[in-house]
Design brief:
20% strand, elongated, alpha/beta, six-stranded mixed sheet, ten-stranded mixed sheet
């Protein structure tokens, strides 16, 4: 009997409508090595177990089942490490939950060959097709990410799309040693840990289907239950603190980007685009309290930078900040050339405050003026020492940092 090289790990719970697709995707793999399929069922009640047993009887040499009598997820058990790992015989582990499935018959072989050739890689991902079952629409899961090694920034905050769980392929020896940082999801805990053990590689090939809003899926619960979403936010803060200590603060500079991604998503989901500065401030204060004031500095920065999204931000900033510091001789510049810049100009003129010019990150040659206000590129502008620069951009974190790095002092945001 050939030695097992890859163990496929499948976690399932009430996936009666999906599990056949997952199993068929595993069984269609064509490889020059032996692999096994380990399926853990967490006491499904919808007929999933019957299907698992049927497949196991047809493919006893491939499929092994771990059937629980009591639900383990509700007890906080790490199902992969604490329950499934002792059964694993493969040098590598491939992961796919029971409501997703693999498309390409050569997926395992391609990832196996990559890892064999590059011992520095601890974890390999590939792209997936995201299937939104509420709309029956399909899009790519990760957009704009080229094949290659992931950067530290990509690992901490994958803003080009979440790396599909169904694509995970890792070294079993590292999985056995995996620390539990109590991440909000197992995906994130595994990715951060594997990054600390080696390099992470992404293959830009859509070799699996990731079901979005499938019945019982975590992403469905997030959007339907604000309590679950709020717990996710709190867990993320605790997780970042734990991992920061473990990694000796190696990734700390990316944490703002990470919380920004999550908290903006939360606000857009449960508040929409109509919330006031007062409502935003209340949310931040509650988050500080519920997380034990562990990242108050990051949360304060998040509030000040993202306050522009509040419905009353422009008016309040003019009244409470700019009017209090500007004089008749103070040069005022607006960092923006979009709609918010036009609104800001109108509000400043209403208070008899003149605008000297507009600043943009990358000025195009033909873009010299807007309403007769000169437009300067950030690398070209030479503001007076007492000049005020009001950054009126929704996505403005990088621009604020660029201004600070160039020595500008009076930045309003």
């Amino acid at each position: 009997m050939a030695e097992i090289e890859v163990s496929i790990l499948c976690v399932t719970f009430n996936h009666v409508n999906y599990i056949k697709d997952a199993l068929d995707g595993f069984l269609r793999q064509k490889t020059d090595f032996a692999y096994e399929i380990l399926v853990h069922d967490d006491v499904s009640t919808d007929g999933t177990v019957d299907i698992l047993k049927e497949y196991q009887q047809k493919y006893p040499e491939k499929i092994r089942l771990i059937l629980e009598e009591e639900n383990q997820y509700s007890k906080g058990v790490d199902i992969t490490k604490d329950i499934m790992l002792p059964y694993v015989r493969g040098k590598y582990t491939a992961y796919c939950e029971g409501d997703d499935y693999w498309l390409y018959e050569g997926k395992l072989q391609r990832q196996y060959d990559l890892m064999e050739a590059h011992p520095e890689i601890s974890l390999c991902y590939h792209n997936a097709v995201l299937h939104d079952e509420t709309k029956d629409e399909m899009t790519l899961n990760v957009i704009g990410q080229e094949s290659g090694y992931l950067t530290d920034s990509d690992i901490i905050c994958p803003d080009k799309g979440w790396y599909p769980t169904s694509s995970c392929f890792s070294r079993t020896e590292y999985l056995a040693e995996k620390s539990n940082f109590h991440a909000p999801t197992g995906d994130e805990n595994g990715r951060y840990y594997m990054a600390s053990r080696g390099k992470i590689y992404f293959m830009n090939q859509a070799w699996s289907i990731y079901r979005w809003f499938s019945k019982g899926a975590w992403n469905t619960k997030y959007y339907e239950d604000k309590v679950i979403a709020e717990k996710y936010n709190r867990d993320l803060v605790h997780f970042l603190r734990n991992f920061n200590e473990y990694s000796d603060r190696k990734y700390e500079k990316y944490f703002y980007k990470r919380i920004r991604h999550t908290f903006l998503h939360y606000l857009e989901t449960f508040f929409g685009e109509e919330y006031t500065l007062e409502e935003f401030s209340t949310y931040i204060q509650e988050l500080k309290s519920s997380t034990g004031h562990m990242i108050d500095e990051l949360l304060d920065r998040f509030y000040h930078i993202e306050a522009i999204r509040c419905s009353d931000y422009l008016q309040t900033t003019v009244k409470q900040k700019i009017c209090k510091i500007v004089t008749s001789n103070t040069p005022v510049y607006i960092y923006s050339t979009g709609n918010d810049a036009l609104k800001a100009i109108a509000l400043l003129l209403k208070e008899n405050i003149e605008v000297k010019g507009l600043i943009t990150t990358n000025r195009v040659p033909y873009e010299e003026k807007l309403l007769e206000y000169p437009i300067y590129g950030i690398d070209d502008v030479e503001c007076e020492k007492d000049a005020i620069i009001w950054v009126c951009l929704w996505w403005r974190y990088n621009e604020i940092k660029m201004l600070q790095d160039r020595g500008f002092k009076n930045i309003i945001y």
